[in-house]
Fold this sequence. Notes:
By secondary structure, the protein is an alpha+beta fold. Helix content is 32%, strand content 26%.
Amino acid sequence: MNEFDLIRRYFCFSTSDNGLSAKTASGESISLGVGDDCALVNLLPGHQLAITTDTLVNGVHFPEGADAELIARRALRVNLSDLAAMGATPLGFQLALTIPEIDTTWLEKFSTGLAEDAKKFQCPLIGGDTTRGPLSITITMMGTVEKQNALRRKGASAGDIICVSGTLGDAIYALEQLFSDSLDEYLIRRYWLPEPRIQLGRVLGAKATAGLDVSDGILQDVGHIARANRLTACVEFHNIPLSRSLLSSNITEANARRIALSGGDDYELCFTIDECVFAEVEKQATELGCRISKIGRMLPLDESGEAVICVDLGGNRLPIKTAGYDHFRK
Ligand code: ADP
Ligand code: MG
């Protein structure tokens, strides 16, 4: 099999015979998908294109020898999570795949997983590149958002409450225990198949003041919002939402909260919002089957200059380590 046979066999699943691609969640049309020098997309008036790229490297972002179907689905979902964080709706994606050799069993599984989630999230594969080398997967995801609704990191004010969707800490706990036989199915799923909060992101685009997705640990990520607005984020340790599965696993509640603060891979949305609209947003989130929790408040910049502080139930400051994952930290 050569490079072109490979592309035709495994990566044309979103393209019909006439070259047009499948329906997109955002309602734009793809007028040309895989097979030409570029893809062509028709955009709706009044919308902006939201673009993001994430790379997953074998042995760094997923364990070596991991199931190809799960690798594909996770790669797609972490990119979709960035769209959700911006309040954008999926349009389509490109895949730059580097593989050490043509392993048809692996490619078949990878393609099946990718096609399944591309369909689920109405996000067609519209092009890419295929090269030989150590296994790595780069996805460039595109979405669209109405001009006034893009949710940025900048925009929060002192007094806004800080909220988070879902629960935190499940994925990092699962990753640490991935090879133990006793790990809960739900937690394994939370690591491999994070739920991109696309619908919630659209609600937040119109209602929240700032937001991002939690990929590197809530303390580090909320710090990005704080710094973008020259504020201090005050996070309430006791209000970090934890799943029942994590609470009934083999760690204490306090330790579960600790890993939830600094552990990455949750792909939940963290956002700031005027307290007056919280109830309304919570109602919309509930209708979408998604829990949201208040976890703190944005304050005027702390006299110590710290972007993030963490307090206990009595308001006492807790010592924290704000550094989440950093690829270049020595
Ligand atoms: P070019 O030489 O113009 O870069 P390629 O030979 O790399 O083109 O790719 C041919 C076509 O196949 C292009 O439309 C490209 O977008 C698409 N393509 C290549 N690799 C992939 C892939 N892994 N997934 C989806 N589309 C791909
Ligand atoms: Mg190429």
